[in-house]
Amino acid sequence: MLAAKPCTATCVIDGIAVTLTFFPDTGVLRITDSTGSRLRETRWSASWDSLVATFRELSETADEDRADPDVLFGSVYRSHAASTRFAT
């Protein structure tokens, strides 16, 4: 098993500041709020660069022109959307 350093970025999703942490060795993508509470955890099968490019594209697109998550995230979104839940 690789001991790769996680990739981290902070961004705003739906008006909430969140931190994205991607573990390239396992493909785990964790989204936490500003207090560190886990909001969502899923797997991202593409690279960190691909994830950042997807979020950048989303942030530069007008709300009314934004694609459906199925379009933006493809099979990664569909295969994990049902199994991922917000933490309570």
TrEMBL record:
Q: Which domain of life is it from?
A: Bacteria
What's the protein name? Uncharacterized protein
Q: Which organism is it from?
A: Paraburkholderia franconis
